[in-house]
Amino acid sequence: MDVTLLGTGGPSGLPRPSCPCSSCAVALGVDARAATALLVDGALMLDLTPGVAFAAARAGHSLGGVRQVLLSHPHDGPAVEVPAGLPQPGRVPDGRELALLTGHRVRAVAMDAPGTGYAVTGPDGQRLLYLPPGGAPAGLEENGKDVYDLVLADVVGRPDALAKLRAVGAVGPTTDVVAVHLDHDVSPGGELRRRLAAAGARAVPDGTTLAVGAYEDVPDVPRRTLVLGGARSGKSVEAERRLEAFPGVLYVATGGTRNGDGEWAARVSAHRERRPGSWRTAETCDLVPLLADEGPPLLIDCLSLWLTDAMDAVGAWDDAEWAGGGERALRKRVRELTDAVRATRRTVVAVSNEVGSGIVPATASGRRYRDELGRLNAAFAGECEQVLLVVAGQALVLRG
User: How many angstroms separate the CA atoms of 243 and 163, rounded?
Assistant: First the structure.
Protein backbone atom coordinates (compact mmCIF):
# COMPACT_ATOMS: atom_id res chain seq x y z
CA MET A 1 0.00 0.00 0.00
CA ASP A 2 1.41 3.38 -1.05
CA VAL A 3 0.41 6.73 0.41
CA THR A 4 1.20 9.99 -1.37
CA LEU A 5 1.04 13.08 0.80
CA LEU A 6 -0.41 15.73 -1.50
CA GLY A 7 -0.11 18.20 1.36
CA THR A 8 1.20 18.05 4.94
CA GLY A 9 0.29 21.48 6.32
CA GLY A 10 -2.42 22.84 8.56
CA PRO A 11 -5.88 23.65 7.19
CA SER A 12 -4.66 27.07 5.99
CA GLY A 13 -1.38 25.75 4.63
CA LEU A 14 2.11 26.96 5.52
CA PRO A 15 2.90 29.78 5.24
CA ARG A 16 -0.53 31.01 6.21
CA PRO A 17 -1.89 33.63 3.82
CA SER A 18 -0.96 37.16 4.99
CA CYS A 19 0.59 35.90 8.25
CA PRO A 20 3.66 37.97 9.26
CA CYS A 21 5.04 35.53 11.89
CA SER A 22 8.64 34.30 11.77
CA SER A 23 7.65 30.68 11.07
CA CYS A 24 5.61 31.69 8.02
CA ALA A 25 8.40 34.00 6.86
CA VAL A 26 10.88 31.10 6.58
CA ALA A 27 8.43 28.43 5.33
CA LEU A 28 9.91 28.36 1.84
CA GLY A 29 10.83 25.61 -0.63
CA VAL A 30 10.44 22.16 0.89
CA ASP A 31 9.24 23.78 4.13
CA ALA A 32 6.18 25.27 2.38
CA ARG A 33 3.18 22.98 2.82
CA ALA A 34 -0.32 22.77 1.38
CA ALA A 35 -3.22 21.68 3.57
CA THR A 36 -2.94 17.97 4.39
CA ALA A 37 -4.49 15.51 1.92
CA LEU A 38 -3.61 11.85 1.25
CA LEU A 39 -3.86 9.66 -1.81
CA VAL A 40 -3.87 5.93 -1.01
CA ASP A 41 -2.92 3.62 -3.89
CA GLY A 42 -4.42 6.13 -6.32
CA ALA A 43 -7.88 4.91 -5.31
CA LEU A 44 -8.74 6.52 -1.96
CA MET A 45 -8.39 10.19 -1.07
CA LEU A 46 -8.46 11.37 2.52
CA ASP A 47 -9.42 15.06 2.68
CA LEU A 48 -10.00 17.32 -0.28
CA THR A 49 -8.02 20.57 -0.38
CA PRO A 50 -7.52 23.47 -2.80
CA GLY A 51 -5.23 22.61 -5.69
CA VAL A 52 -5.28 18.90 -4.97
CA ALA A 53 -5.33 17.96 -8.67
CA PHE A 54 -2.22 20.04 -9.35
CA ALA A 55 -0.54 18.60 -6.25
CA ALA A 56 -1.22 15.07 -7.51
CA ALA A 57 0.16 15.94 -10.96
CA ARG A 58 3.35 17.37 -9.43
CA ALA A 59 3.75 14.11 -7.49
CA GLY A 60 3.32 12.11 -10.73
CA HIS A 61 -0.19 10.85 -10.03
CA SER A 62 -3.56 11.14 -11.70
CA LEU A 63 -6.81 11.39 -9.79
CA GLY A 64 -8.64 9.44 -12.48
CA GLY A 65 -8.56 6.23 -10.44
CA VAL A 66 -9.95 7.72 -7.21
CA ARG A 67 -13.07 5.79 -6.21
CA GLN A 68 -13.71 7.32 -2.76
CA VAL A 69 -13.07 10.70 -1.12
CA LEU A 70 -13.45 10.87 2.65
CA LEU A 71 -13.37 13.93 4.89
CA SER A 72 -11.76 14.05 8.32
CA HIS A 73 -12.13 17.72 9.23
CA PRO A 74 -15.05 18.75 11.46
CA HIS A 75 -17.41 20.03 8.76
CA ASP A 76 -20.26 18.45 6.81
CA GLY A 77 -19.47 19.42 3.25
CA PRO A 78 -16.45 19.49 0.98
CA ALA A 79 -13.84 22.11 1.87
CA VAL A 80 -13.46 23.15 -1.79
CA GLU A 81 -15.08 22.67 -5.14
CA VAL A 82 -14.87 19.03 -6.22
CA PRO A 83 -12.65 18.65 -9.32
CA ALA A 84 -14.30 17.08 -12.36
CA GLY A 85 -14.17 13.30 -12.30
CA LEU A 86 -13.85 12.93 -8.53
CA PRO A 87 -16.69 11.35 -6.55
CA GLN A 88 -18.53 13.51 -4.05
CA PRO A 89 -16.74 13.53 -0.67
CA GLY A 90 -18.33 11.75 2.24
CA ARG A 91 -17.69 10.67 5.79
CA VAL A 92 -17.90 7.26 7.43
CA PRO A 93 -19.84 7.25 10.73
CA ASP A 94 -17.72 6.56 13.82
CA GLY A 95 -17.12 2.87 14.34
CA ARG A 96 -18.44 1.86 10.92
CA GLU A 97 -16.33 0.22 8.21
CA LEU A 98 -16.35 0.89 4.49
CA ALA A 99 -15.13 -1.77 2.02
CA LEU A 100 -13.86 -0.61 -1.38
CA LEU A 101 -13.85 -2.68 -4.56
CA THR A 102 -10.09 -2.19 -4.64
CA GLY A 103 -9.72 -4.38 -1.53
CA HIS A 104 -9.16 -1.51 0.92
CA ARG A 105 -11.12 -1.41 4.16
CA VAL A 106 -11.66 1.91 5.94
CA ARG A 107 -12.86 2.10 9.55
CA ALA A 108 -13.90 5.41 11.07
CA VAL A 109 -12.20 6.09 14.42
CA ALA A 110 -14.02 8.24 16.98
CA MET A 111 -12.12 11.36 18.12
CA ASP A 112 -12.09 13.26 21.39
CA ALA A 113 -12.60 16.46 19.36
CA PRO A 114 -14.71 17.27 16.29
CA GLY A 115 -13.61 15.33 13.23
CA THR A 116 -13.12 11.73 12.09
CA GLY A 117 -10.05 9.51 12.08
CA TYR A 118 -9.59 6.72 9.54
CA ALA A 119 -7.89 3.35 9.96
CA VAL A 120 -7.13 1.95 6.50
CA THR A 121 -6.20 -1.67 5.83
CA GLY A 122 -4.71 -2.38 2.42
CA PRO A 123 -5.37 -5.44 0.23
CA ASP A 124 -2.17 -7.05 1.54
CA GLY A 125 -2.91 -6.31 5.20
CA GLN A 126 -0.79 -3.20 5.80
CA ARG A 127 -2.42 -0.78 8.22
CA LEU A 128 -2.33 3.00 8.48
CA LEU A 129 -4.06 5.45 10.78
CA TYR A 130 -4.87 9.02 9.74
CA LEU A 131 -6.05 11.53 12.35
CA PRO A 132 -7.56 14.99 11.76
CA PRO A 133 -5.94 18.19 13.06
CA GLY A 134 -6.37 18.76 16.79
CA GLY A 135 -7.79 15.28 17.41
CA ALA A 136 -6.84 12.17 19.38
CA PRO A 137 -8.60 8.78 19.33
CA ALA A 138 -11.32 8.32 21.95
CA GLY A 139 -12.14 5.13 23.84
CA LEU A 140 -9.01 3.17 22.91
CA GLU A 141 -8.58 -0.30 24.38
CA GLU A 142 -5.37 -2.26 24.63
CA ASN A 143 -5.01 -4.76 21.82
CA GLY A 144 -1.47 -5.94 21.13
CA LYS A 145 -2.45 -7.40 17.74
CA ASP A 146 -3.44 -4.11 16.11
CA VAL A 147 -0.13 -2.32 15.57
CA TYR A 148 -0.22 0.25 12.79
CA ASP A 149 2.52 0.28 10.17
CA LEU A 150 2.05 4.01 9.54
CA VAL A 151 0.46 6.77 11.62
CA LEU A 152 -0.20 10.23 10.20
CA ALA A 153 -1.23 12.63 12.93
CA ASP A 154 -1.03 16.13 14.37
CA VAL A 155 2.07 15.29 16.42
CA VAL A 156 2.90 18.93 17.18
CA GLY A 157 -0.60 20.00 18.18
CA ARG A 158 -1.69 16.77 19.92
CA PRO A 159 1.36 14.82 21.12
CA ASP A 160 -0.90 13.13 23.67
CA ALA A 161 -2.65 11.34 20.78
CA LEU A 162 0.61 9.52 20.13
CA ALA A 163 0.95 8.78 23.84
CA LYS A 164 -2.54 7.21 23.86
CA LEU A 165 -1.70 5.04 20.86
CA ARG A 166 1.55 3.91 22.47
CA ALA A 167 -0.24 3.13 25.73
CA VAL A 168 -2.55 0.59 24.05
CA GLY A 169 0.13 -0.87 21.79
CA ALA A 170 -1.25 0.61 18.56
CA VAL A 171 2.11 2.32 17.94
CA GLY A 172 5.16 0.12 18.33
CA PRO A 173 8.91 0.45 17.81
CA THR A 174 8.61 -0.15 14.06
CA THR A 175 5.64 2.14 13.43
CA ASP A 176 6.49 4.98 11.08
CA VAL A 177 5.02 8.12 12.65
CA VAL A 178 4.74 11.02 10.22
CA ALA A 179 3.60 14.47 11.34
CA VAL A 180 0.92 16.17 9.25
CA HIS A 181 -1.30 19.26 9.69
CA LEU A 182 1.95 21.17 10.30
CA ASP A 183 1.25 24.82 11.10
CA HIS A 184 3.26 27.84 12.19
CA ASP A 185 3.47 26.84 15.87
CA VAL A 186 7.01 25.50 15.37
CA SER A 187 9.66 27.02 13.15
CA PRO A 188 10.14 24.76 10.09
CA GLY A 189 13.42 23.10 9.25
CA GLY A 190 15.86 22.07 11.97
CA GLU A 191 13.71 23.04 14.96
CA LEU A 192 10.74 21.05 13.64
CA ARG A 193 12.93 18.00 12.95
CA ARG A 194 14.40 18.20 16.47
CA ARG A 195 10.99 18.48 18.12
CA LEU A 196 9.56 15.58 16.14
CA ALA A 197 12.60 13.35 16.68
CA ALA A 198 12.10 13.69 20.45
CA ALA A 199 8.64 12.18 19.94
CA GLY A 200 9.89 9.41 17.64
CA ALA A 201 8.28 11.05 14.61
CA ARG A 202 9.37 12.73 11.39
CA ALA A 203 8.11 15.11 8.72
CA VAL A 204 8.32 14.70 4.95
CA PRO A 205 7.88 17.25 2.14
CA ASP A 206 4.64 17.57 0.18
CA GLY A 207 4.47 15.09 -2.69
CA THR A 208 6.31 12.32 -0.82
CA THR A 209 5.10 8.76 -1.45
CA LEU A 210 5.40 6.38 1.50
CA ALA A 211 5.39 2.59 1.16
CA VAL A 212 3.33 1.41 4.12
CA GLY A 213 5.11 -1.36 5.98
CA ALA A 214 8.51 -0.66 4.41
CA TYR A 215 11.39 -0.08 6.80
CA GLU A 216 12.01 3.57 7.57
CA ASP A 217 14.75 5.13 9.62
CA VAL A 218 12.47 6.01 12.51
CA PRO A 219 14.19 8.52 14.83
CA ASP A 220 15.66 6.95 17.94
CA VAL A 221 14.40 8.70 21.06
CA PRO A 222 17.37 9.39 23.38
CA ARG A 223 17.09 7.26 26.51
CA ARG A 224 18.89 9.74 28.77
CA THR A 225 18.64 13.50 28.24
CA LEU A 226 19.85 16.43 30.35
CA VAL A 227 18.21 19.81 29.78
CA LEU A 228 20.18 22.78 31.12
CA GLY A 229 19.19 26.43 31.26
CA GLY A 230 19.05 29.57 33.33
CA ALA A 231 16.14 30.96 35.31
CA ARG A 232 12.91 31.18 33.25
CA SER A 233 14.77 30.03 30.16
CA GLY A 234 12.09 27.48 29.27
CA LYS A 235 14.11 24.42 30.30
CA SER A 236 11.24 22.75 32.18
CA VAL A 237 8.84 23.31 29.27
CA GLU A 238 11.42 21.80 26.91
CA ALA A 239 11.86 18.77 29.17
CA GLU A 240 8.11 18.21 29.49
CA ARG A 241 7.65 18.60 25.75
CA ARG A 242 10.13 15.78 25.11
CA LEU A 243 7.88 13.26 26.89
CA GLU A 244 4.40 14.50 25.89
CA ALA A 245 4.10 11.76 23.26
CA PHE A 246 4.78 8.94 25.75
CA PRO A 247 2.34 7.38 28.23
CA GLY A 248 2.57 6.94 31.99
CA VAL A 249 5.41 9.38 32.65
CA LEU A 250 6.52 9.69 36.29
CA TYR A 251 7.29 13.32 37.11
CA VAL A 252 9.84 13.43 39.92
CA ALA A 253 9.67 16.76 41.76
CA THR A 254 12.75 17.28 43.93
CA GLY A 255 11.71 20.65 45.37
CA GLY A 256 9.22 19.53 48.02
CA THR A 257 6.21 21.58 49.09
CA ARG A 258 7.75 24.41 51.20
CA ASN A 259 4.73 24.97 53.40
CA GLY A 260 3.88 28.63 53.86
CA ASP A 261 5.71 29.81 50.74
CA GLY A 262 2.97 31.14 48.48
CA GLU A 263 5.28 32.05 45.60
CA TRP A 264 6.73 28.52 45.54
CA ALA A 265 3.22 27.03 45.66
CA ALA A 266 2.29 29.13 42.60
CA ARG A 267 5.34 27.82 40.73
CA VAL A 268 4.45 24.21 41.57
CA SER A 269 0.83 24.75 40.52
CA ALA A 270 1.90 26.20 37.15
CA HIS A 271 4.09 23.15 36.51
CA ARG A 272 1.28 20.75 37.41
CA GLU A 273 -1.22 22.45 35.10
CA ARG A 274 1.16 22.03 32.15
CA ARG A 275 1.55 18.29 32.58
CA PRO A 276 -0.69 15.75 30.80
CA GLY A 277 -3.36 14.28 33.03
CA SER A 278 -1.98 10.76 32.52
CA TRP A 279 1.33 11.62 34.22
CA ARG A 280 1.98 10.70 37.85
CA THR A 281 4.00 12.77 40.33
CA ALA A 282 6.46 11.70 43.02
CA GLU A 283 7.94 14.31 45.37
CA THR A 284 11.31 12.88 46.39
CA CYS A 285 15.06 13.36 46.20
CA ASP A 286 15.69 9.61 46.47
CA LEU A 287 16.46 9.15 42.79
CA VAL A 288 18.70 6.08 42.82
CA PRO A 289 15.91 3.52 43.56
CA LEU A 290 13.70 5.07 40.87
CA LEU A 291 16.48 4.81 38.31
CA ALA A 292 17.12 1.20 39.29
CA ASP A 293 13.45 0.18 38.90
CA GLU A 294 11.82 -0.84 35.64
CA GLY A 295 8.99 1.41 34.58
CA PRO A 296 7.74 4.28 32.44
CA PRO A 297 9.85 7.33 31.59
CA LEU A 298 11.11 9.60 34.36
CA LEU A 299 11.15 13.37 34.22
CA ILE A 300 13.38 14.71 37.01
CA ASP A 301 12.90 18.38 37.80
CA CYS A 302 15.39 19.31 38.93
CA LEU A 303 18.99 18.30 39.76
CA SER A 304 19.82 21.66 41.29
CA LEU A 305 17.22 21.13 44.03
CA TRP A 306 18.45 17.54 44.45
CA LEU A 307 21.92 18.98 45.07
CA THR A 308 20.57 21.42 47.65
CA ASP A 309 19.02 18.51 49.54
CA ALA A 310 22.23 16.46 49.27
CA MET A 311 24.37 19.36 50.52
CA ASP A 312 21.97 19.89 53.43
CA ALA A 313 22.34 16.21 54.34
CA VAL A 314 26.15 16.28 54.46
CA GLY A 315 26.46 19.66 56.20
CA ALA A 316 28.09 21.28 53.19
CA TRP A 317 27.23 24.82 54.27
CA ASP A 318 29.49 24.61 57.32
CA ASP A 319 33.20 24.93 56.50
CA ALA A 320 34.28 22.61 59.31
CA GLU A 321 31.79 19.88 58.39
CA TRP A 322 32.69 20.27 54.73
CA ALA A 323 36.37 19.81 55.42
CA GLY A 324 35.73 17.05 57.97
CA GLY A 325 33.98 14.66 55.61
CA GLY A 326 31.09 16.54 54.03
CA GLU A 327 32.88 16.95 50.73
CA ARG A 328 33.69 13.23 50.51
CA ALA A 329 30.11 12.34 51.41
CA LEU A 330 28.73 14.61 48.68
CA ARG A 331 31.12 13.14 46.09
CA LYS A 332 29.85 9.68 47.07
CA ARG A 333 26.20 10.74 46.62
CA VAL A 334 26.89 12.25 43.21
CA ARG A 335 28.80 9.13 42.14
CA GLU A 336 25.91 6.89 43.24
CA LEU A 337 23.49 9.03 41.23
CA THR A 338 25.58 9.05 38.05
CA ASP A 339 26.23 5.31 38.37
CA ALA A 340 22.46 4.79 38.58
CA VAL A 341 21.94 6.93 35.46
CA ARG A 342 24.53 4.87 33.61
CA ALA A 343 22.84 1.58 34.59
CA THR A 344 19.18 2.61 34.21
CA ARG A 345 16.92 0.93 31.65
CA ARG A 346 14.33 3.70 31.86
CA THR A 347 13.94 6.70 29.61
CA VAL A 348 15.10 9.69 31.66
CA VAL A 349 14.83 13.42 31.05
CA ALA A 350 16.45 15.53 33.76
CA VAL A 351 16.44 19.30 34.25
CA SER A 352 19.17 21.36 35.88
CA ASN A 353 20.17 24.98 36.22
CA GLU A 354 23.19 26.34 34.40
CA VAL A 355 24.66 28.86 36.85
CA GLY A 356 28.31 29.02 35.77
CA SER A 357 27.79 32.00 33.47
CA GLY A 358 26.11 34.23 36.05
CA ILE A 359 27.33 36.60 38.75
CA VAL A 360 29.94 35.16 41.12
CA PRO A 361 28.12 34.52 44.43
CA ALA A 362 29.10 36.86 47.26
CA THR A 363 29.34 34.14 49.91
CA ALA A 364 31.63 31.13 50.28
CA SER A 365 28.63 28.79 50.59
CA GLY A 366 27.10 30.26 47.43
CA ARG A 367 30.32 29.74 45.51
CA ARG A 368 30.53 26.21 46.86
CA TYR A 369 27.02 25.44 45.61
CA ARG A 370 27.78 26.94 42.20
CA ASP A 371 30.94 24.84 41.88
CA GLU A 372 29.26 21.63 42.99
CA LEU A 373 26.33 22.14 40.64
CA GLY A 374 28.76 22.62 37.77
CA ARG A 375 30.48 19.35 38.69
CA LEU A 376 27.14 17.53 39.04
CA ASN A 377 25.91 18.80 35.67
CA ALA A 378 29.12 17.72 33.96
CA ALA A 379 29.04 14.25 35.56
CA PHE A 380 25.35 13.73 34.76
CA ALA A 381 25.79 14.98 31.19
CA GLY A 382 28.60 12.48 30.71
CA GLU A 383 26.07 9.65 31.14
CA CYS A 384 23.45 11.07 28.73
CA GLU A 385 22.98 10.44 25.03
CA GLN A 386 21.65 13.97 24.55
CA VAL A 387 22.38 17.27 26.33
CA LEU A 388 20.49 20.50 25.58
CA LEU A 389 21.06 24.08 26.66
CA VAL A 390 17.93 26.26 26.63
CA VAL A 391 18.46 29.99 26.12
CA ALA A 392 15.52 32.39 25.73
CA GLY A 393 13.24 29.44 25.05
CA GLN A 394 15.49 28.11 22.26
CA ALA A 395 17.03 24.65 22.72
CA LEU A 396 20.64 24.26 21.58
CA VAL A 397 21.85 20.68 21.17
CA LEU A 398 25.20 20.23 22.90
CA ARG A 399 25.32 16.46 22.40
CA GLY A 400 23.32 13.87 20.51
Answer: 9
- Taking the C-alpha atoms of residue 350 and residue 265, their distance in angstroms, rounded to an integer, is 21
Tens of pLDDT along 104-144? 999 999 999 999 999 999 999 999 999 999 999 998 877 65
Distance of CA 148 to the CA centre of its chain: 18
Three-state secondary-structure class, residue 373: helix
Report the Cα 388 to chain-centroid distance in Å.
16
Please state, in angstroms and rounded to a whole number, the distance separating the CA atoms of residues 226 and 300. 9
Count CA within 13 A, CB hemisphere, residue 165: 36
Q: Would you call 271 a catalytic residue per the annotation?
A: yes
- The CA-based dihedral angle spanning residues 377, 379, 381, 382, taken in that order and rounded to the nearest 10 degrees: 160
d(CA 18, CA 33): 15
Rounded CA-CA distance 391/389 in Å is 6
Catalytic residue selected from 61, 73, 75, 271: 271
Evaluate if residue 76 carries a pLDDT over 70. Answer: no
DSSP output for 324-352:
IIIHHHHHHHHHHHHHHHHH--S-EEEEE
